[in-house]
Amino acid sequence: MQRTNDNLPKIAQWKSKAKFRSKEISARKKREKELLASRSKWKEKYKKEKAAKHQLEKQLKRHNQGKKGEAKEKRKPKHHSYSVQIIVLCIWLRHQGNCSLRSCVSVLKIMSMVLGLELSFPSRNTIQNWEKKLGYSRVHVEGKKGESWVLILDESISIGQQKLLLILGVELSKYSFGEALCFEDTTVLYLGIGSSWTGGLISKQIKQLKSKGFAIKYAVSDGGTNLVKSLKMSDISLIQDCTHAIGNLLKKQYNKDEEFLKFSKECGIFKRQVMLGKNALIMPPTQRAKGRFLNLQPLSSWAYKMLVLLEQENSKLSKEQKEKLDWLKEYRTLIVQINEECKTMNTIFKILKKRGLSEATYEACEAILKQSNSSFFKEGISQYLVRNLAILPDIKTLICCSDIIESYFGKYKNQLEKSGNKLITDSCLAIANFNQNFSEEEILKAMEEVKIVDLKNWREENLPSSLLQKKRALLKSMG
User: Which of 6, 65, 200, 246 is 20 to 30 Å from the Cα of 113, by its Cα?
Assistant: First the structure.
């Protein structure tokens, strides 16, 4: 009997555990039924939403039907995985949005997530091949009868021995004066890479353009020796670029002027003294090593404004800043003269770059020059205007500015910097896409007609052995 009494607490404990487990099992079964019921409800809701989506897609498809009653579907170029709309979007992102190749892919991903679009994402190499194909197609376009063109040509120097020759064309029937030339007004007629571009080689390319049907009226250039020679050999009249011509006048005037050279040197020293301190706000702008006289305006404007602040009674300059800038007073006459010439130059540029060179703009420029006190500068500009007006007297208004070609080179170099590469590669074919006047039909045609082997052949013809390839071969030979 004693043993039975000892087991009673254990039996009671077991019963309480059994009751607890029974309640727990019952609760879990109940929860399981609720989850199953909830799951079936979500399934039904999903089916309804799917059916509604399907119905909306049908309505959208009917809404997008063309006039002939056929649905407007996304077109894909032959042997391509992506629609022409995706290709257009990527090329627009590259050249209108100034995105890098990897950024284009990131933008597509963001659009897909935010807008709920079902997009596939091409790789950076695929996007680069697309823009190369379009560029290759555009460079190899034939001219049309009855169209008159103006050439704008120049070459760009890169690292190593590679030089890029670029020839732009402006179709006169489509261009109207009133605004400076922009990307949309020009077409890339030729681009090529070579170790050097002699007058004979450039003339050969111009003759090929003529054989393609391009009727060339005249050309605009910065006056490089090889460019001038090539145009003479091709029997094409040259209108000298106003930016370089007037900039060279400043160069002739100040390049060997001791006072200016001393002033320029002191500006450089002063910048290094204050650029890292509390007085960095009064430092002069950076002077370019190349094309310094074409970009003299920022330096002259800074010096003139600092002089004005120094001479003001209630100037916001501190006593310390005035002491640091006191050396500018020594060059007051020079600064005032250069500032006046730069202002005159910019006013004339606004006329010539927007309205072109004509009898009317010549008179407008002469009226401005009468107000100038610099005889050398004034006479030089007058001679430039008269000389270039006499070249083609039959043409009422002449294009006389080639700034747009510098914009092409600048945009391409900016893209190269984003990729971390400063060498000219076959990616330069994308320069032909900068004018952005392309349609879906043109892109569709380019994707289908231009093959990867065409790009390879173009690369072998224009880039037989780049500096980067030679460097890799040298390092590989180490073993």
Answer: 65
Region of poorest pLDDT, from 45-59, 138-152, 397-411, 414-428:
414-428
At position 13, the amino acid (one-letter code) is Q
Q: Contact, 89 vs 100, CB < 8 A?
A: no
| CA dist., res. 212 & res. 49, Å (int) | 59
Beta carbons of 406 and 168 less than 8 angstroms apart: no
CA distance 384 to 239: 10
Parallel/antiparallel/unpaired status of strands 163-171 and 148-157: antiparallel
Strand intervals (E) in 206-339: 215-221, 238-240
DSSP letter for each residue of 378-397: HHHHHHHHHHHHTT-TT-SS
- C-alpha 76: how far from chain center: 28
The span from the CA of 418 to the CA of 433, in Å, is: 18
Tell me the C-alpha distance between 213 and 191, whole Å.
17
Name residue, tokens 């010096």. 303
Enter the pTM of the model. 0.76
Exposed, middle or buried: residue 154 (CB in 10 Å: 0-12, 13-18, 19+)? buried
Match 């404007």 to its residue by tokens: 301
Strand partners, 190: 167
Give the CA dihedral 117, 123, 125, 130, nearest 10 degrees.
-20
Check if the beta carbon of residue 186 is closer than 8 Å to that of residue 161. Answer: no
Angle at which helices 332-355 and 258-274 pack, to 10 degrees? Answer: 90
Whole-angstrom distance, CA of residue 358 vs CA of residue 390:
10
From CA 197, how far away is CA 182, in angstroms rounded? 26
Q: Distance between CA 367 and CA 435 in Å, rounded?
A: 36
Q: What is the DSSP letter of 431?
A: G
**Residue 398: C-alpha distances to residues 134, 189, 200, 246, 340 (Å):** 31, 20, 26, 17, 27
